[in-house]
């Protein structure tokens, strides 16, 4: 699905990712954990195609293609989805227009007809119900005035509509209340299939109780310094990162 | 003496001598109400002349360039060789309105009769009605414009012969908007002067939409003045849509005088046009008056759009709100000067102003300048201006959802404009403007004639 080899990335002249290696097979769930500022969101953004990042070295292949060659919108249409850590508010762009355009761009790419107004509304209603999303939210501008939790739910709502092959969830759990966390996790799991993979970036074990990872990686100072099974998350929850930092020293 | 000063005198003299040579023609057929203003006005114009960069109020717009060209003035109604009711097909789609056409500044002779206006409402040609109904005109004509120091307003007064006139008596509500379509059409370069007068009585309501268009791509110079009187408790909307060829240059000066407790909404949308200068003055002359003043422009190529507003809070407890937004592409230039003056006794004034601009290229340029003059102490005033680019974070968000870059940019620009558009109180007009702006931003909005040179 996704293979990252020795990826080095600089932002504003500063090297943030210092040689990432990661291999994700179809159907797998990978969790990425690590202290603040270690480069987790940077990795997510680079994979999604954000432009002001400078790739210094390395390669990334996604479904057999050179990911770094593709524009952000192409990556999205090929099935890569980033749930943003901080979804941006876009006043004046109505949610409905946004979702419809996004969905129909994806359909066009797959050679499908655009959805009719009726089909679209029906699909939207279904997914909103599944995620217990306040139905009024879609009458507003994209993320405008949404609460922290609503923004996160809105990301997963979009994911549910677009059904990506690879979803990168960047701290989707932060800001969600306990019930919402469960609902969102169910939403993610509903998409789970042998063809789809997920990268879960999180600070807490709690989310991983619901979205169970096959692998847990620790990203520290721009490198993956430890990889193990799901038990690693429990260990980190208990002991923090100091022991890993010591191991490295 | 520098070259520009010599030039300036020559340019201004052209217009004063035009006045002298045509003095009789100007008076001919015109009401004494119009004719008696001319001599004072031309003197006023002469004193300052065509404003150049040195004129503080015109520092961002050099009008000498466009006034210097050769034009044929239209001091008489000229017969039109086609039926404009047929010929006029434009991108402002037909709304359900009372519609009147003006041609080169004159009320079109073959305008269809306006039927269904409420009793007592008088709408039509200023030239005709100043002759036939002087009692409706005399207390209003030039009562605002005559106080202006602007030489081009004076020039309009000196040359004014016709334009649109509307009188709405007290306690009358006109539901349907009145659409005034100003057409420019000629085989040669033309200088037009149009004078509009709108009087809305106490407790009355009316909506007027001005649409400026060109039907040929010659050089045009249009010098318009509109005076609007908003009676006590009246609710008035005045919208202007500017969609002319880029060879047309327009100076458009509007005056609004608001009585107690009146409510005004005025907005200007500039889509196409070469050089455009909009002067707008609101005098809040009664307590508890409210004004919302909106503007937006979408420019490219070498377009130049300058909005100059002046909100005079003369009485206490009034509210004014200005919102101007511009999207500038290619080599276009924009300017916004927003003046708010709160007079000494205008306590409890609320006056707000905002100007946001998006530059799409490095060569586009925007000048923005607030001017707050506050002589009262118990007031709330604010102003804010931004000049920036498209929000990159928002752009990435949209693209990360599969929306390609050009579409994502369009969405963001439409969203930017939408904040202004949503304030339009005539719903079908709001939807149409939304469409027009979207088309404009896509580059699909045909100029009425596409043979622009600029
Ligand atoms: N645009 C930028 N300009 C300058 N520095 C940046 C930029 N983006 C990221 N960085 C820096 O890169 C480092 C990694 O940031 P990143 O957001 O990837 O961390 P993170 O692991 O996601 O942290 P957190 O857990 O707090 O979300 C930080 O030191 C951050 O300040
Ligand atoms: Mg982060």
TrEMBL record, chain A:
<feature type="domain" description="ABC transporter">
    <location>
        <begin position="2"/>
        <end position="246"/>
    </location>
</feature>
<comment type="similarity">
    <text>Belongs to the ABC transporter superfamily. Ycf16 family.</text>
</comment>
<keyword id="KW-0067">ATP-binding</keyword>
<dbReference type="GO" id="GO:0016887">
    <property type="term" value="F:ATP hydrolysis activity"/>
</dbReference>
<dbReference type="GO" id="GO:0005524">
    <property type="term" value="F:ATP binding"/>
</dbReference>
<keyword id="KW-0547">Nucleotide-binding</keyword>
<dbReference type="InterPro" id="IPR027417">
    <property type="entry name" value="P-loop_NTPase"/>
</dbReference>
<protein>
    <submittedName>
        <fullName>Fe-S cluster assembly ATPase SufC</fullName>
    </submittedName>
</protein>
<dbReference type="InterPro" id="IPR010230">
    <property type="entry name" value="FeS-cluster_ATPase_SufC"/>
</dbReference>
<dbReference type="Pfam" id="PF00005">
    <property type="entry name" value="ABC_tran"/>
</dbReference>
<dbReference type="InterPro" id="IPR003439">
    <property type="entry name" value="ABC_transporter-like_ATP-bd"/>
</dbReference>
<dbReference type="InterPro" id="IPR003593">
    <property type="entry name" value="AAA+_ATPase"/>
</dbReference>
UniProtKB/TrEMBL annotation, chain B:
<dbReference type="InterPro" id="IPR011542">
    <property type="entry name" value="SUF_FeS_clus_asmbl_SufD"/>
</dbReference>
<dbReference type="InterPro" id="IPR045595">
    <property type="entry name" value="SufBD_N"/>
</dbReference>
<feature type="domain" description="SUF system FeS cluster assembly SufBD core">
    <location>
        <begin position="189"/>
        <end position="416"/>
    </location>
</feature>
<dbReference type="InterPro" id="IPR037284">
    <property type="entry name" value="SUF_FeS_clus_asmbl_SufBD_sf"/>
</dbReference>
<dbReference type="GO" id="GO:0016226">
    <property type="term" value="P:iron-sulfur cluster assembly"/>
</dbReference>
<dbReference type="Pfam" id="PF19295">
    <property type="entry name" value="SufBD_N"/>
</dbReference>
<dbReference type="InterPro" id="IPR055346">
    <property type="entry name" value="Fe-S_cluster_assembly_SufBD"/>
</dbReference>
<dbReference type="InterPro" id="IPR000825">
    <property type="entry name" value="SUF_FeS_clus_asmbl_SufBD_core"/>
</dbReference>
<protein>
    <submittedName>
        <fullName>Fe-S cluster assembly protein SufD</fullName>
    </submittedName>
</protein>
<feature type="domain" description="SUF system FeS cluster assembly SufBD N-terminal">
    <location>
        <begin position="12"/>
        <end position="180"/>
    </location>
</feature>
<dbReference type="Pfam" id="PF01458">
    <property type="entry name" value="SUFBD_core"/>
</dbReference>
<comment type="similarity">
    <text>Belongs to the iron-sulfur cluster assembly SufBD family.</text>
</comment>
């Amino acid at each position: 699905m996704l293979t990252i080899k020795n990826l080095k990335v600089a932002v504003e002249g500063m090297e943030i990712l210092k040689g990432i290696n990661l291999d994700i097979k179809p159907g797998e769930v990978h969790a990425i954990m690590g202290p603040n500022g270690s480069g987790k969101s940077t990795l997510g953004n680079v994979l999604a195609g954000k432009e002001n990042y400078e790739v210094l070295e390395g390669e990334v292949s996604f479904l057999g293609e050179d990911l770094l060659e593709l524009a952000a919108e192409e990556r999205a249409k090929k099935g890569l989805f980033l749930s943003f850590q901080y979804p941006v508010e876009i006043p004046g762009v109505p949610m409905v227009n946004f979702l419809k355009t996004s969905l129909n761009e994806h359909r066009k790419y797959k050679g499908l007809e655009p959805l009719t107004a009726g089909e679209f509304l029906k699909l939207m209603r279904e997914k909103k119900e599944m995620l217990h999303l306040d139905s009024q939210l879609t009458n507003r501008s994209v993320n405008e005035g949404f609460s922290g939790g609503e923004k996160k739910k809105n990301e997963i709502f979009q994911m549910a509509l677009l059904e990506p092959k690879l979803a990168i969830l960047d701290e989707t759990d932060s800001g969600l209340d306990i019930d919402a966390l469960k609902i969102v996790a169910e939403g993610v799991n509903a998409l789970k299939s042998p063809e789809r993979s997920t990268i879960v970036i999180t600070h807490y074990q709690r989310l991983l109780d619901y979205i169970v990872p096959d692998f847990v990686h620790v990203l520290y100072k721009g490198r993956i310094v430890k990889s193990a099974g799901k038990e690693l998350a429990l260990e980190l929850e208990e002991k923090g990162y100091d022991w890993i930092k010591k191991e490295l020293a | 003496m520098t070259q520009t000063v010599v030039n300036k005198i020559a340019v201004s003299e052209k217009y004063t001598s035009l006045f002298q040579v045509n003095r009789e023609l100007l008076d001919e057929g015109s009401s004494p109400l119009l004719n008696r203003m001319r001599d004072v006005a031309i003197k006023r114009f002469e004193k300052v002349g065509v404003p150049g960069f040195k004129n503080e109020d015109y520092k961002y717009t050099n009008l000498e360039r466009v006034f210097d060209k050769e034009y044929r003035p239209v001091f008489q109604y000229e017969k039109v060789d086609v039926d404009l009711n047929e010929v006029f097909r434009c991108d402002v789609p037909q709304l359900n309105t009372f519609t009147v056409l003006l041609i080169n500044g004159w009320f079109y002779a073959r305008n269809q009769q306006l039927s269904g206006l409420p009793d007592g409402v008088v709408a039509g040609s200023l030239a005709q009605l100043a002759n036939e109904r002087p009692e409706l005109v005399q207390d209003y004509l030039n009562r605002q414009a005559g106080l202006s120091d602007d030489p081009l307003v004076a020039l309009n007064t000196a040359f004014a012969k016709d334009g649109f006139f509307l009188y709405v008596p007290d306690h009358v509500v006109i539901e349907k908007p009145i659409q005034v379509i100003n057409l420019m059409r000629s085989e040669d370069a033309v200088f037009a002067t149009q004078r509009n007068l709108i009087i809305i009585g106490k407790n009355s309501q009316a909506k007027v939409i001005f649409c400026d268009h060109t039907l040929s791509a010659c050089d045009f110079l249009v010098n318009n003045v509109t005076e609007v009187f908003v009676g006590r408790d009246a609710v008035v909307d005045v919208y202007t849509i500017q969609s002319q060829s880029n060879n047309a240059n327009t100076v458009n000066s509007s005056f609004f005088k608001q009585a107690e407790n009146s409510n005004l909404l005025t907005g200007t949308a500039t889509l196409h046009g070469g050089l455009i200068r909009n002067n707008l003055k609101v005098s809040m002359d009664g307590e508890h008056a409210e004004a919302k003043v909106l503007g937006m422009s979408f420019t490219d190529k070498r377009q130049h759009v300058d909005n100059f507003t002046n909100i005079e809070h003369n009485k206490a407890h009034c509210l004014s709100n200005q919102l101007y937004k511009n999207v500038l592409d290619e080599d276009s230039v924009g300017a916004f000067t927003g003046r708010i003056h709160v007079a000494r006794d205008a306590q409890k004034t609320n006056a707000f102003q905002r100007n946001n601009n998006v530059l799409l290229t490095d060569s586009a340029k925007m000048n923005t300048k607030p001017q707050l003059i506050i002589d009262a102490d118990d007031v709330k005033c604010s102003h804010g201006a931004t000049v920036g680019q498209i929000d990159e974070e928002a752009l990435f968000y949209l693209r990360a959802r599969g929306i390609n870059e050009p579409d994502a940019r369009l969405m963001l620009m439409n969203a930017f404009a939408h904040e202004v558009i949503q304030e339009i109180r005539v719903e079908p007009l709001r939807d149409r403007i939304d469409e027009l702006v979207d088309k404009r931003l896509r580059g699909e909005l045909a100029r009425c004639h596409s043979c622009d040179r600029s």
